[in-house]
């Protein structure tokens, strides 16, 4: 059985919304970071409305140093990972939280840009 163990697993298919940037965490680890946009259609009254959800993605450089630099804005990717929540204190002294998806693996599905998604990413 699971003996009360939790599962933290995420599967996403979405569009890279900006070119990945290289960032170093306080503990010295390096990550590629970028926003990923996923779309779904929700029924509202008598019509279907497109809803875009934005995810902050982090990909460890030690695992993907050669493949991430090939990612570019507009790429459609499949990503597996886990959710990680970090706390920080803003300029006003208020404690804030940010949730990120830390990638375990990913695959580029298409290099073409979906027109509507590219326009949303530029906004």
Automatic annotation (TrEMBL):
InterPro entries linked = NA-bd_OB-fold, Primosome_PriB/ssb, ssDNA-bd
GO MF, one annotated term:
single-stranded DNA binding
Q: Which GO terms describe its biological process?
A: DNA replication
Keyword presence, Iron = no
Its Gene Ontology cellular component terms are: nucleoid
UniProt key word Isomerase:
no
Task: Identify the CDD domains for this entry.
Answer: SSB_OBF
Q: Which keywords describe this protein according to UniProt?
A: DNA-binding
Database matches in Pfam families: SSB (PF00436)
Query: NCBIfam families, per this entry?
Result: ssb
What is the name of this protein?
Answer: Single-stranded DNA-binding protein
Q: What is the lineage of its organism?
A: Bacteria, Pseudomonadati, Bacteroidota, Sphingobacteriia, Sphingobacteriales
The record's gene field reads: ssb
